[in-house]
Design goal:
heterodimer, A: mainly alpha, 3 helices, 51% helix, 0% strand, B: mainly alpha
Chain lengths: 65, 207
């Protein structure tokens, strides 16, 4: 709703869950680094080659930490 | 509105059309509505831009919730809901109270879940409970969750990945954007009788 691409799409809206910003860019970058470490990849290319199952697995582990 | 020609086909072939439409009506308890599109009100005949064959296939195929979004860890029951959805392999689900020519407000529901779980497919979010009593059209969207939609790789992958942290949101807005177009496609049910009639008329003519 707050993005430029959503402009004009909404007539009325009710926000019921959280806020548009859940993490600062610095925090988000740290999460990404932690995620890649857990997934055992060092580059975007390696990340892209991960299977969905491995991505989900890494995500679950990350949420647990 | 559909052309007079189409109307006359529909009327003259109504007995041929009825069983097929009835089958769809039985299949879909919450039948797709006829939503008057902007194009329609602008005087463009719907059959001019509808791929009738495809529309029929979609209505028959998408009578259940679509797949869960990647990354969802929701535990909600999936259940089997008889409903109708069009477009994007069920990524967008639409409920409407009934099939008629009335215009209705459209409510778009984007599920929550901390950007990492839940699904529009959960039976908690059965839009029929809003569409019926409220006499509105309810649309729900799926979007990428967790690492699949919100992994910020800007610092790692450079400029190309600058927006990766908001991919899920981007998909939401894309889907919302697609809504008006989708809803226009949903005008099919009403139009389909004309389409079928046209097809049968074409067959009768041998073309």
């Amino acid at each position: 709703m707050t993005t430029v691409t959503a402009r004009g799409l909404f007539h009325k809206a009710t926000m019921q869950s959280s806020t548009p910003v859940v993490a600062s860019t610095t925090q988000a970058a740290r999460v990404a680094q932690a995620y890649m470490k857990i997934a055992g990849v060092g580059s975007i290319k390696e990340l892209q080659e991960l299977s969905m199952a491995k991505m989900l697995d890494a995500q679950t582990k990350l949420f647990e930490t | 509105m559909p052309s007079e020609r189409a109307k006359s086909y529909a009327n003259s072939h109504s007995t041929l059309v009825a069983p097929e439409l009835l089958a769809i009506a039985l299949l879909a308890v919450f039948v797709l509505g006829y939503i008057q599109s902007r194009a329609n009100t602008a005087g463009v005949a719907l059959e001019d831009f509808f791929d009738c064959e495809r529309a029929f296939a979609d209505v028959r195929r998408l009578v259940a919730f679509g797949p869960r979004p990647s990354g969802s860890q929701a535990l909600g029951r999936t259940g089997e809901f008889i409903m109708t959805a069009l477009r994007a392999a069920g990524a967008t689900v639409v409920w409407t109270p009934r099939a008629d020519a009335n215009k209705r407000p459209v409510m778009v529901w984007v599920h929550g879940g901390g950007f990492s779980e839940d699904s529009a497919r959960d039976t908690w979010y059965d839009g029929a409970t809003l569409a019926g009593p409220g006499d509105i059209v309810v649309v729900t969207l799926q979007y990428r969750l967790g690492a699949f939609g919100f992994l910020k790789l800007a610092g790692i992958g450079g400029e190309d990945y600058a927006g990766s942290g908001n991919l899920g949101i981007w998909i939401r807005s894309r889907r919302s954007n697609g809504c008006s177009r989708t809803l226009r496609h949903l005008a099919t049910i009403r139009t389909m009788s004309h389409c079928l009639a046209n097809r049968q008329a074409r067959r009768a003519r041998g073309s």
